[in-house]
Write a structure and sequence with these properties.
This protein is α/β, with parallel strands linked by helices. Helix content is 40%, strand content 7%. Helix 9 packs antiparallel against helix 11.
């Protein structure tokens, strides 16, 4: 990667930046996951880094918030170290590259086994808010796509849950739609084939090598048993180890405990069987 570009991550890994610097590549980091007290400092840092990025060949390793408002035509690479939250988010993020019309390279790294956390939130009531994007754009003098991009960013970060509605496109068919499988395939290729992505170039799916089994972390397992005395619910203990929240975990104030998610790289069913064995002995 010898051209200016961005590396998008969910959280900053300083090791990736150090690796670039050791190779003599100018790189910097920006992490938007700051506390409320650091908000003003974070905004100042963002402005400085964005200015430097616009003027130089600096490579940024940053969370997705860094790219908001960036309009640099010579971005040649956009790399994701984690799978984007949605296709819409990915389209917006890679859309910052190649605006000068030259070819750019966009790719992301996928692991065969990525720790996945599921979160269950107990709420007494939900609050729904409506925003008219067109009216807001006119009222505040900003571009409509900027508002949509910011809402999509907040949705990806879990700040809000975005449910687009009242979207209607009216079309009139000038010819009969395709009926046969071959006709439909030709139309789909004409509409969706970009000619540049991996699928268009190879027509081969990604192939993953099955990773070796992860050794059971007995130390973390014992830590959970020492932290939680309850032996009546092995699924509760498995959720705690895997990092899945529940009303009871919230009630026990274990969501921020160091044992929460301490075994997230294990298979959930393996954890459940192990805790079931412990709980059955205590019955």
């Amino acid at each position: 990667m010898s051209h200016p570009g961005g590396i998008a991550t969910d959280s900053i890994d300083e090791g990736s930046v150090d690796g670039l610097l050791r190779r003599g590549i100018a790189a910097a980091t920006f992490d938007s996951s700051k506390t409320r007290e650091d908000y003003i400092k974070t905004c100042d840092q963002l402005e400085v880094l964005q200015d430097e990025f616009m003027k130089t060949d600096l490579i940024m390793v940053a969370t997705i918030a860094f790219g908001m408002g960036i309009d640099k035509g010579s971005i040649r690479n956009v790399v994701h170290f984690s799978v984007p939250q949605s296709l819409e988010s990915y389209s917006q993020e890679i859309g910052r590259s190649g605006r000068d019309g030259d070819t750019s390279t966009c790719f992301f790294f996928i692991k065969a086994r990525q720790p996945q956390r599921s979160h269950t939130v107990a709420k007494k009531a939900s609050k729904l808010h409506h925003i008219d994007v067109d009216s807001a754009a006119r009222l505040y003098g900003v571009e409509r796509n900027e508002i949509i991009a910011k809402l999509s960013e907040w949705n990806a970060e879990g700040v809000l849950e975005l449910k687009p509605s009242r979207v209607m496109n009216v079309y009139k068919l000038t010819t009969h739609p395709p009926q046969t499988t071959s006709e439909i395939e030709i139309l789909a290729q004409a509409i969706y084939a970009c000619g540049h992505c991996q699928w268009c170039l190879t027509h081969e799916p990604l192939r993953f090598e099955t990773p070796p089994p992860i050794p059971f972390d007995q130390l973390a397992f014992d830590g959970i048993l020492n932290m939680v005395s309850a032996r009546d619910d092995p699924r509760l203990l498995a959720k705690l180890a895997f990092g899945i929240s529940s009303p009871r975990i919230t009630q026990m104030r274990l969501g921020r405990s160091p044992v929460f998610g301490s075994m997230e790289n294990h298979e959930f069913i393996v954890l459940l069987r192990a805790f079931e064995q412990v709980c059955s002995v205590c019955e």
